[in-house]
Input
Amino acid sequence: MNIYPITDHKFRKYGRVLKNLDTKDLLTAMEQTPLPNDVIYIPSDSSLEALPIYQQFQNEVYGELPIQIGYCNGNNYLLNAVEYHRSSEINIAQKDLILLLGSQQDITEEFTYDTSKMEAFLLPANTAVEIYATTLHYAPCNADKDGFRCVVVLPKDTNLELTAPHKTEGEDKLLTAKNKWLIAHKDSGLEGQAFIGLVGENLSVQ
Output
């Protein structure tokens, strides 16, 4: 698999690099977050949301919408699934990491997706990117053997537990959490928890 730099023109359809953000305190605080052997995702972390950059994210990046700041940390080399939101997601690498990205437009009418269409990008430490709402993504992957730490900024309540009944057909069957539509691979271990619709190889960055 080719791994492109985040500055490559191929990334432009998936997102953009965010500049003029003072992320020093945020990334320092991230050093205290856990780094497990698997993957942990915390949608909202009060210590990160107490930092001054919270207001900049809310006011400038999300146009005053309520937001949450959390993180996704750990060790991972596989695609396993793809998700999308009705909103952009901000990712900031505390350590170098790899993002596997695709386009929502390539999902078929049957809600399947060919994993060969995914592309890999290296997100260097201390770099912030906006991942567009139509970009398919999931947990980051290791850029080295020492794991990854990634700040995740989203509209408030994204990825929290659903509270309303949902259909088992159409796009609604992909909804696994608030503002989270998910398509999983048969080898992901998510059968019974998510719609299995990824076609092809469960991609690995190793």
About this structure: The CA atoms of residues 49 and 69 lie 6 Å apart.
